[in-house]
């Protein structure tokens, strides 16, 4: 493209060129950025997650027996001891969770793995302790595991 020089009125014409090297550098940087982010995205999707189906229940009562296990504020295993007049469970310290799961497998056999297990977790329990308990159940072969959040102790 030819433009007139700014110095003189009609002194002559000169060719103006757009430098391409900064443009090429920018394109390569963007290409590298998108390649790296797509590789990071692939690494995040390695863990398979099975999401539950959204369904509504017509009956107010649960159809199956649920095995209740408690987790305390420090992540300790709590054994359900009794039910009060409102239907709430009270818990007592119960030792280690992995020993309890091994005891369940020894007494009931492999068929216990299909039974529903519900963790009643105190609101002050650290999230990592909850994940550790769920991992223990997964390692022992329990597949039907749920979580219920309770009010903190003393409330």
* Structural class by sheet pairing and helices: alpha/beta
**Poorly predicted tracts of residues:** none
Strand elements, count = 7
Going by CATH, the architecture of the largest domain would be 2-Layer Sandwich
Characterize the overall form.
Answer: elongated
Q: How many discrete structural domains?
A: 2
SS strand fraction: 15-25%
Mean pLDDT across every amino acid position: 79
Number of helices: 3
| Radius of gyration of CA atoms, rounded to a whole number | 32 Å
Strand count, sense and barrel status of the largest sheet are: 5 strands, mixed
Q: Taking strands numbered 1, 2, ... along the chain, how are they ordered across the largest sheet?
A: 5-4-3-6-7
> What fold name stands as the CATH topology of the largest domain?
Nucleotidyltransferase, domain 5
Which bin fits the share of residues in helices? 25-40%
Note the run of SSEs as H and E.
EEHEEEHEHE
What is the topology?
Elements: E1 2-4, E2 13-15, H1 21-44, E3 66-71, E4 77-83, E5 89-93, H2 97-108, E6 116-122, H3 127-140, E7 145-150
Parallel strand pairs: 3-6, 6-7
Antiparallel strand pairs: 1-2, 3-4, 4-5
Structural description of this entry:
The protein is α/β, with parallel strands linked by helices. The chain is built from 3 helices and 7 strands; from the N terminus they run E-E-H-E-E-E-H-E-H-E. The chain has helices spanning 21-44, 97-108, 127-140, and strands at residues 2-4, 13-15, 66-71, 77-83, 89-93, 116-122, 145-150. The strands form 2 sheets. It has a 5-stranded mixed β-sheet with strand order 5-4-3-6-7, with helices on one face. The longest helix is centred in the N-terminal third of the chain and has 24 residues, at 21-44. The model has no long low-confidence stretch (mean pLDDT 79).
């Amino acid at each position: 493209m030819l433009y007139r020089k700014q110095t003189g009125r009609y002194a002559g014409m000169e060719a103006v060129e757009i430098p391409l090297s900064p443009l090429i550098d920018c394109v390569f940087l963007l290409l590298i950025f998108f390649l790296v982010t797509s590789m990071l995205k692939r690494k995040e999707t390695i863990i398979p997650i099975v999401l539950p189906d959204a369904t509504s229940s017509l009956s107010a009562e649960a159809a199956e027996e649920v095995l209740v296990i408690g987790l305390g504020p420090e992540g300790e295993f709590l054994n359900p001891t009794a039910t009060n007049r409102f239907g709430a469970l009270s818990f007592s310290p119960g030792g280690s969770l992995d020993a309890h799961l091994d005891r369940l497998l020894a007494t009931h056999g492999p068929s216990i793995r299909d039974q529903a297990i519900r963790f009643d977790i105190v609101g002050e329990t650290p999230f990592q302790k909850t994940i550790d308990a769920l991992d223990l159940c997964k390692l022992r072969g329990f597949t039907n595991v749920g979580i219920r959040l309770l009010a903190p102790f003393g409330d």
